[in-house]
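Handout, page 2. Input:
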Amino acid sequence: MEIKQYAPVIIPTLNRFDHFKRCLESLEKCTGAEHTDVYVALDYPPSEKYIDGWKKIGAYLVEKEKNNSFANLCVTRRERNYGVGHENSNGAALIKEIKPLYEFYIFTEDDNEFSLCFLEYMNACFQRFIDDDRIVKICGYNFPMEFPSMYKNNFYISKRFCAWGNGSWIKKNKNIEDNYYNLDALRNIILDDTKYNKLKKVYPRGIDLIHSMLKLGKLHGDAIYEIYANLEDKYFVLPTISKVRNYGNDGTGVHSLRMNIAVNDLYSKQLIDQSVVFDFTDDLFTYEPIGLIDNNYVVKTTLRSIYKHLVIKFDFWLLRHFGFIPKSKYI
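Output:
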């Protein structure tokens, strides 16, 4: 498929120099990089421990701005810490800044590595599904899983979302931003009997995710998108072979503060697409949603998980009857 317009790529970063360097340089090798605008937002360090990595990234970007393979490399250097996990975070602020300039965009955290065909895949999906109201986002990553032998296409649609290299249409994203992407909206889902009962029926895990976000006072985009898709009957496009490899389970990230070797190895050593180009492989089988469940997440019954379950139940009772949830961390 001929790509008529290339989406910009947004990368927020702070201090993880090795991750960021790998991310940017793998993106630079992608087919179509020369047509792609890349926007980097370097956040300001919130404390002393972030300064060394922050300085390394800053110095690296000075050189990279002079010599790179992108159409444009635009760097924003924050003068205060914007943080993560809220409506005005470093990444969210950068999205707001570029929105007036584009119809769609690609967002990635700095701990991803990309296949050579990643940009072609993302932009081909933007072009193909722009008028399909069912499709609201594109995922570049796919979890390790096996497909039925009869399924021949190199993409599928699902209500499962992964944020590791994802694409958004600005118009399609408006409903999510206006009606889901804030803590008050999430609280109202629990208090609205119709929405709560539907979510409980079609995506019960979403209720626990809402509780967690309300309790911590932080927004998690991947959770919000899955809640939205299940309540609004929308879908995401995913590749059958992942176009992204993730290194963020090494204990350096906000969502992975402790190293889990098994989980880290599962993702950081995952095989990804080796193709240089991407084109849709349609056969006679339609690309209707298919329910695939990977077996990489094993629910373990531990004292900690039992305690968390009881806390969630108590939080739910407080919210339904008194309208609030204590903001504290689970053990």
